[in-house]
Amino acid sequence: MSYKNILVAVAVSPESHLLVARAVSIARPENGQITLVTLASDPELYNQFAAPMLENLRELMLEETQIFIDELVEKADYPIARTVIATGELSEHIMAICLKREIDLVICGNHNHTFFSKIICSAKAVIESSKVDVLLVPLR
């Protein structure tokens, strides 16, 4: 099966380069499009510690996320059609992008290798609600 529109859920971590490389290997033969989506860390999680600096912290975390996304795009060795930095529930953003962009494959990473962990991993929500193929890539 060939895929023309691939959505890759990435995090600010070195393993994301593996996910992008996998997407490129799938997209390249079909001249497919790749979209990257990630979540910006929400400083509200830390508000009890950093309430006075919350706005600065939010800007800093968003900037850090953008720098990492830019690095992924630069090192992809393939054109990345678009990038999305979201906040909130990742699975909801993935589903919305799938509908809006006619995505036919979602690629997610999985750090969980035990049976129990696989059942409760964050990709579970994507798999359960997705109407497109989902590739879950094991990460170490």
Roughly how much helix do the residues carry, as a percent range? 40-55%
Radius of gyration: 16 Å
Largest sheet: 5 strands, parallel
Distance between the termini: 27 Å
If strands are numbered along the chain, what order do they take across the biggest sheet?
Answer: 3-2-1-4-5
What would you call the structural class? Answer: alpha/beta
Low-confidence stretches: none
In summary, what is this structure?
The protein is of the alpha/beta class.
Q: How does this model look, in words?
A:
- This protein is an alpha/beta fold.
- Helices cover 45% and strands 21% of the residues.
- It is built from six helices and five strands.
- The chain has helices spanning 16-27, 47-50, 54-75, 90-101, 115-120, 123-129, and strands at residues 5-9, 33-39, 82-86, 105-110, 133-138.
- It has a five-stranded parallel sheet, sandwiched between helices.
- α4 (90-101) runs parallel beside α6 (123-129).
- The longest helix is centred in the middle third of the chain and has 22 residues, at 54-75.
- It is globular, with a radius of gyration of 16 Å.
Identify the notable features of this structure and list them briefly:
alpha/beta, 6 helices, 140 residues
Helices and strands in order:
Layout (H helix, E strand, L loop, with lengths): L4 E5 L6 H12 L5 E7 L7 H4 L3 H22 L6 E5 L3 H12 L3 E6 L4 H6 L2 H7 L3 E6 L2
Parallel strand pairs: 1-2, 1-4, 2-3, 4-5
